Amino acid sequence: MDDVSQDEPSKAVKRVLIFFLGLIALTILPLIMGRFDNSTELIPRHDSVLQLCFEIAGVCGFIFAGVAIYISKGIVLWRRIAIAFCAALMGIIAILMVADHAASIIEEHIDFPAGTTKTYTALIQISRAYQTHGKGQSWNIQTMPIWSDLDITKDDYDFMLAHRRPGDDSHNPDEISSKGYFCARVVVQQSGHAIRIMHAGSEKLPQGTVMLCPQIPAPTSAP
Predict the structure, then answer these.
(1) Any residues with CB less than 8 A from the CB of 69 and at least 6 apart, and which?
(2) 8 phi, psi to nearest 5 deg
């Protein structure tokens, strides 16, 4: 009996390791799904679906925590609690990313049927740009009048830094005010009222996307 009781913690550790390997594999899945989620839908907005993704992720987090507590039986209590917390956190993040990608792929498949979808190039106005730092450094633009948040290349962000709009006297390199001074040349697809920007899902917009918006000549009075 002593040998069995002493062997239980080692078996529990193996179960926990296998469980976390599964969670790690789950976090890799969104990277694969991202190859099929290569656009950003502007209209219609599916905010209710995104809320549902958060709810699903939260429920799955509790389930993963429960599984972690169950399979870690034989390990000291405080470690079981830590394992459950880590499992819940990893599970929520992984499921949220998987659900978000899956929902986006399904929504765009429904909203943009091949037979009625038109593709064209367009200029969209940029409201502002910003950059983030750290391991996941990124350079982003936000569009107007329809809001979206899109990734751009560092070269395009540097172009905006070097050509700030007149009146933008900020010296903050992490924030650029545009208010329609800059535009992004993008590939747009439209089907009915549904509109999406291509090559703007899980990757950056192509280099050279950002440009100064063409100036509209002021009206002249009749002679």
Answers:
(1) 80, 81, 83, 84
(2) -60, -45
Give the tokens for residue 59.
């429920």
- List residues bridging with 142 in a β-sheet: 128, 149
Sequence-distant (≥ 6) Cβ neighbours of residue 65 within 8 angstroms: 84, 85, 87, 88, 91
- Tokens 């009075």 sit at which residue? 221
Over residues 135-141, the mean pLDDT reads 90
Query: Could you tell me if 202 and 174 are in contact, meaning their C-beta atoms sit under 8 angstroms apart?
Result: no
d(CA 196, CA 51): 20
The pLDDT value recorded for residue 156 is 97
Mean pLDDT value of segment 21-27: 90
3-state secondary structure 24-93: HHHHHHHHHHHHHCCEEEEECCCHHHHHHHHHHHHHHHHHHHHHHHHHCECECHHHHHHHHHHHHHHHHH
> Which pLDDT does position 94 carry in this prediction?
93
> Looking at the predicted structure, is the pLDDT value of residue 221 above 70?
no
Q: Rounded to whole angstroms, how far apart are CA atoms 158 and 53?
A: 35
In whole angstroms, what is the distance from residue 78 CA to residue 86 CA? 13
